[in-house]
Amino acid sequence: MPRIYVGTYAKYNNGSIAGAWLDLETYSNRFAFYQACAVLHFDETDPELMFQDWEDIPDRFISESSLAEDIWPNWIELDDDTRALCRMAWDNVDDSMTVEQVNERYAGSFDNEADWAADYWDGTGMLEGIPEFARNYIDYESYARDRRLGGDVTFVREGGQVHVFTNN
Question: Fewer Cβ within 10 Å of end Cβ, the chain: N or C?
Answer without folding.
Answer: C
